[in-house]
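Example complex used in Figure S2.
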Amino acid sequence: MENNVTCKEVMNHICDNLGEELNSPRCIAIKEHLNSCPNCQSYFKNVEVTIDFYKKYNVTLPDEAHNRLVDYLGLKE
Amino acid sequence: MEENELIEKAKAGDRHALAVLVKNYAQTVFNFAFKICRNRDKAEHTMQETFLSVIKHIDQFDSKSKLSTWLYTIVSNHCLMMARSAKKDMFASIDDEEALIDESSITDWSVSPEKVTENNELKEMLDDAIQKLPADYRIVFLLRDVEGLSTEETGKITNLTVPAVKSRLHRARAFLRNEINKVMQDGK
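Predicted assembly (265 residues):
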């Protein structure tokens, strides 16, 4: 198994495959690198947090906007 | 009443069924439209146009499909149409996938995602970063990573092949991470 993966390769892999469980020999080598490289771990964390930021940033539909929608569509009951 | 039943009634012209469907999905559509536009007025306009389109074309909706997928498709198309009228130079160039990986500036971020709900500065930073992404990249990132749709569903909605979805997602993730990292580094 080839283990000489670079940080750049690991970071590319993170952006490509985050959240997917891949088990090819190359992926296993990448996971091993990730487990022992603080820089790549920080990068991984950064990408995860980026996604989490956007997941948690939500807006609520105001009642007035909902009323305007119902009026606009002519669905007032 | 089950959603399928509501859809069938709406197809038959039942206004009450339509009103219930609109009520059930208005929040989802508004939130998703906001996530693409990053502007409440544009999100409201998109929501109105989306449901108008639903009412006009409900008879063509294939009941075997998911209503949410259809709604995401209409919102995405509407936002892409609006984005086409925006100047191209407003968006960052992210053609070079390799160049997007910045190995030189790795920082541990101290801000927790939980703070998003209460921190306006953080919201502004997230709005600024995502608005630099071309709309088609933004939509792929939001559908796949934020809304949690599969690569295949995202491709169907955006009319992109699976490799094209993956490539856009890769670039969007790397680009957004870099933009946020710049701000986090400056703040240290």
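Chain A touches chain B through 35 residues (CB under 8 Å). The two ends of chain A are 68 Å apart (CA to CA).
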